[in-house]
């Protein structure tokens, strides 16, 4: 068994609805290098920004509350400079802080044959909105694949688009680097297949580089390294990103090497706690609610410690890259670090 370590609790705060949001595609998203937590009630969307400081107060004061009453279950909501944007079943819409629609980009519906869900994210300068929408079936009904589109934030005008090999997929978007118009897009098609790309926005054009495909998806990024996770939870790899955009496996760990149990799976999103440590959750099933968390050495993914929390923790952790990570249990958000 690996050595146990008790982490230091930095701060904790109750956020109504966070337990449900934690498992949603838009519930936790990096935007412009900062983690945002998105919760929803039947009439309101709330966006909280995690403070960069590790003082006990977790969130910035300016919580964004936007009234929206027509979000269906699979909608994806993201903050923008003036309010929020939402990927719905048949459109991408841009809203001011009072919920008013500034523009709407209509597309073939996700639920009208192919089943999936889109995602969207704004560039750090607030000028462009990246969105994933379905492809349009041809006259024979053939569905060629989904589309990544670049829209003008002020008007919704299409500036560029790129076809994707995935179809009827569920998407996530992250922007982990501050002031950089680089996004990491992942497409999940259950346990059957996945794709992950780095999407760069430059001169109103999209530039996509595939980082993983098949049964692999990118779970986290840090500089020129990515953590790639098997969609079924069977392994975790550290890959280096080469100058041409391809990735090279540097090390790998399997769940049985972390948790001494008859059957184990790596769950949730593994992530970089800092330059030298990563965190991973392991459970009896790949969707387990009860898991054990481990700190791994990013040099070779060997186990450093098993984390022993002082009270119940959530199913997985979200690493922040600054030496801390957050967990969610019931309606409480907790931030942790290794005690100095």
Describe the structure.
The structure is a single chain. By secondary structure, this protein is mostly beta strands. The protein is 1% helix and 51% strand. The chain has one helix spanning 18-22, and strands at 4-5, 8-14, 28-31, 34-41, 44-49, 64-67, 76-79, 83-87, 91-96, 101-106, 119-122, 128-133, 147-152, 158-163, 170-174, 182-189, 193-202, 205-214, 216-222, 225-230, 236-241, 247-253, 265-272, 277-283, 291-297, 303-307, 318-319, 324-329, 332-337. The protein has a five-stranded mixed β-sheet with strand order 1-26-25-24-23, with no helix packed on it. It has a four-stranded antiparallel β-sheet with strand order 2-29-28-27. Strand 3 and strand 4 form a beta hairpin. It is globular. The mean pLDDT is 92.
Shape: globular
Percent range for β-strand residues: over 45%
How many DSSP-defined strands? 29
Biggest β-sheet description = 5 strands, mixed
Task: For the record, give the distance between the C-alpha atoms at the N and C termini, rounded to a whole number.
Answer: 23 Å
**Uncertain runs:** none
Report the mean per-residue pLDDT as an integer: 92
**Strand arrangement across the biggest beta sheet:** 1-26-25-24-23
Helix count equals: 1
